[in-house]
């Protein structure tokens, strides 16, 4: 038998049920793998004692014939989720020393179902970034490298620690969050599966807020099935989040093997962007052929306002961030830097505590919400958001069941390669994913191939509101058609 | 639209972020790059389009006006940099 951390989450679950190994053994394998992989900087906090204690409790429940759907399965938690008694930083200096006295609803749901916590995963500061290079606690290094090169590659962001840890077998699955692509883009960059569910599917309670009308939690895992199992536990109504939707959580795992026979898959022509690498176009075409071969009808569609999504996002998201991050004032938690009066204390604290990208976004948000600019920027962006959503509604009303697009405009790039003075260059990474957040829809990214340099490439499927099941079904078809892809060679241990 | 150095200082103050003189020019460049990127939105005809207020069609939920949680003062101040007797301490505000 291969090492226990090599198993998929579904295989590990079945192995535990069959008592082929214990939760303690499974957890220990992960704890050891994490200790050997510190070069990746994926974990900000490791909680091995807690993990082993939780595993022992799981073993006791399994021995008694009890146990929840995730009993004994070790997971990583993005450090944007508050975890009771375990430091939570959002990868920011301003939250240094913050230890929540409460648990986020999503992570609470995972523990309710028996999962084991391995630790907290690195991310871009306050989830603002597309390469995990904005963390105050250092870059996450992807386990992937280009063929014949030892140059460090980014894992994507903001859920870069989650994606790197899953790809490097440092957990069976991880929680993540997605405001403009932060689950799907790192999943694509690391050859993993990530789903951002419909807005309202998961509770945002206890997740450090970035842009409240866009933020959603979701899992990153190694297979479509594993992501379906995890989302089934993470999702659900929560009276403490008024935007969480009070509808039943379907059996996502059952949807995985449903197939795509009879479904209509839309191919939006506006995603054929200028300068798209031929490899990405070929991958996209291949994905459509796979779905067609499995019985789906492929139809070209138009989403005319696509190119406006990213600029509108860079008004809406910073505006909401400037409001949400006003709470970091040196009074209630985290860092305080003294000043000559209370205002200079605020200013000094926020100057020292926030990194460059976060400051930039707070300032853009402050500007577009300030007197005289609110209508020209913010209200206009929200109107354009209505138009973006309408594009999708039209496509779905005309019989499209899901939409296939590339997940990212390129494969992962090297650390520091996009450190130019123009922040927009980095923002363009999210050009295919951000529309989904603007319209509140579900989107899944799954690996579909490798580029000429040996780095993973992903495809994205976008669904109707609250129809994650079709995404799991179609995602499974793509996963199977793509076959077993290469995996990162272990260079870090 | 683009911002000048004075506007950068004003925004920083509104955002309560101390900005040194050396930081103003780079910030001005970065903010203007973002503003130039979003400029294209100005060309879109949005006549008669409602601004989005909720991404999913839902009515704001209401709950009974009753105390459901509380009496957690010690938890609430536990992470504060300075506290006294269950209160947050701030620098003197009123002379």
TrEMBL record, chain A:
Residue stretches making up the Amidase domain: 25-471
The answer to whether the entry has keyword Nucleotide-binding is yes
Q: What keywords tag this UniProt record?
A: ATP-binding, Ligase, Nucleotide-binding, Protein biosynthesis
Task: Return the Gene3D superfamilies for the record.
Answer: Amidase signature (AS) domain
According to UniProt, the reaction catalysed is:
L-glutamyl-tRNA(Gln) + L-glutamine + ATP + H2O = L-glutaminyl-tRNA(Gln) + L-glutamate + ADP + phosphate + H(+)
Q: EC annotation?
A: 6.3.5.7
Which residues constitute the catalytic centre? 78, 158, 182
Q: Does the keyword ATP-binding apply?
A: yes
Q: What class of enzyme is it?
A: ligase
Task: Fill in the subunit field for this protein.
Answer: Heterotrimer of A, B and C subunits.
Function recorded in the entry: Hydrolyzes indole-3-acetamide (IAM) into indole-3-acetic acid (IAA).
Q: Which family does it belong to?
A: Belongs to the amidase family. GatA subfamily.
For this entry, the protein name equals: Glutamyl-tRNA(Gln) amidotransferase subunit A
Task: Tell me the organism.
Answer: Methylobacterium jeotgali
From TrEMBL, chain B:
* Stated role: Allows the formation of correctly charged Asn-tRNA(Asn) or Gln-tRNA(Gln) through the transamidation of misacylated Asp-tRNA(Asn) or Glu-tRNA(Gln) in organisms which lack either or both of asparaginyl-tRNA or glutaminyl-tRNA synthetases. The reaction takes place in the presence of glutamine and ATP through an activated phospho-Asp-tRNA(Asn) or phospho-Glu-tRNA(Gln).
Pfam families for this protein: GatC (PF02686)
Task: Cite the SUPFAM superfamilies for this sequence.
Answer: Glu-tRNAGln amidotransferase C subunit
What Gene3D superfamilies has UniProt attached to this entry? Answer: Glu-tRNAGln amidotransferase C subunit, N-terminal domain
Q: What class of enzyme is it?
A: ligase
Q: Which residues form a coiled coil?
A: none
The EC number on file is 6.3.5.-
Question: Protein name, please?
Answer: Aspartyl/glutamyl-tRNA(Asn/Gln) amidotransferase subunit C
Q: Which family does it belong to?
A: Belongs to the GatC family.
- Which reaction does this enzyme catalyse, per its entry? L-glutamyl-tRNA(Gln) + L-glutamine + ATP + H2O = L-glutaminyl-tRNA(Gln) + L-glutamate + ADP + phosphate + H(+); L-aspartyl-tRNA(Asn) + L-glutamine + ATP + H2O = L-asparaginyl-tRNA(Asn) + L-glutamate + ADP + phosphate + 2 H(+)
């Amino acid at each position: 038998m291969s090492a226990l951390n090599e198993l998929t989450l579904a295989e590990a679950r079945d192995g535990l049920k069959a008592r082929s190994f214990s939760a303690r053994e499974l957890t220990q394998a992960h704890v050891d793998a994490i200790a050997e992989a510190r070069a990746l900087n994926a974990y900000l906090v490791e909680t091995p004692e807690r993990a082993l204690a939780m595993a022992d409790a799981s073993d006791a429940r399994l021995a008694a014939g009890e146990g929840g759907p995730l009993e004994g399965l070790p997971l990583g938690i993005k450090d944007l989720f508050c975890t009771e008694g375990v430091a939570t930083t959002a990868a920011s200096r301003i939250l240094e020393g913050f230890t929540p006295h409460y648990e986020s609803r999503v992570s609470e749901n995972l523990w309710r179902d028996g999962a084991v916590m391995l630790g907290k995963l690195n991310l871009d500061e306050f989830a603002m970034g597309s390469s995990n290079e904005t963390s105050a606690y250092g870059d996450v290094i992807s386990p992937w490298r280009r063929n014949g090169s030892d140059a460090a590659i980014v894992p994507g962001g903001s859920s870069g620690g989650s994606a790197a840890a899953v790809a490097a077998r440092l957990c069976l699955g991880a929680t993540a969050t997605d405001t403009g692509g932060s689950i799907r883009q790192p999943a694509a960059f690391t050859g993993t599966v990530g789903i951002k569910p419909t807005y309202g599917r998961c509770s945002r309670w206890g997740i450090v807020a970035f842009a409240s009308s866009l933020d959603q939690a979701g899992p990153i895992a190694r297979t479509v099935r594993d992501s379906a199992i995890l989302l089934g536990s993470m999702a659900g109504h929560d009276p403490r989040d008024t935007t969480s939707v009070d509808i039943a959580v379907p059996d996502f795992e059952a949807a995985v093997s449903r197939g795509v026979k009879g479904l209509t898959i839309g191919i939006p022509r506006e995603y054929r962007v200028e300068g798209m690498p031929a490899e990405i176009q070929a991958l996209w075409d291949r994905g459509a052929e796979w779905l067609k071969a499995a019985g789906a009808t492929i139809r070209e569609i138009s989403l005319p306002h696509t190119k406006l999504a990213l600029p509108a996002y860079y008004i809406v998201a910073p505006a909401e961030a400037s409001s949400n991050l006003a709470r970091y004032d040196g009074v209630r938690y985290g860092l305080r830097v003294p000043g000559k009066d209370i205002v200079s204390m605020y200013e000094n604290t926020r100057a020292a505590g926030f990194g460059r990208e976060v400051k930039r976004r707070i300032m853009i948000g402050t500007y577009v919400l300030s007197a005289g600019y609110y209508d020209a920027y913010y209200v206009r962006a929200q109107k354009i958001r209505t138009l973006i959503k309408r594009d999708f509604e039209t496509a779905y009303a005309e019989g499209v069941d899901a939409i296939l697009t590339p997940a990212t405009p390129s494969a992962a790039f090297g650390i520091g390669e996009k450190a130019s003075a123009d922040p927009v260059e980095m923002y363009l990474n999210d050009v295919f994913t951000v529309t989904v957040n603007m319209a509140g829809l579900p989107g899944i990214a799954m690996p579909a191939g490798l580029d000429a340099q040996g780095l993973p490439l992903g495809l994205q499927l976008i669904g109707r509101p609250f129809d994650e099941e079709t995404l799991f079904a179609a995602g499974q078809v793509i996963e199977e058609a793509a076959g077993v892809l290469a995996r990162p060679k272990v260079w870090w241990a | 639209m683009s911002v000048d150095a004075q506007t950068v200082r004003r925004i920083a103050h509104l955002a309560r972020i101390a900005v040194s003189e050396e930081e103003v020019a780079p910030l001005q460049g970065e903010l203007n790059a973002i503003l130039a990127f979003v400029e294209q939105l100005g060309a879109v005809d949005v006549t008669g389009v409602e601004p989005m207020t909720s991404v999913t069609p839902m009515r704001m939920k209401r709950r009974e006006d009753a105390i459901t949680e509380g009496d957690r003062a010690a938890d609430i101040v536990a992470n504060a940099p300075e506290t006294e007797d269950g209160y947050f301490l701030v620098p003197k505000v009123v002379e």
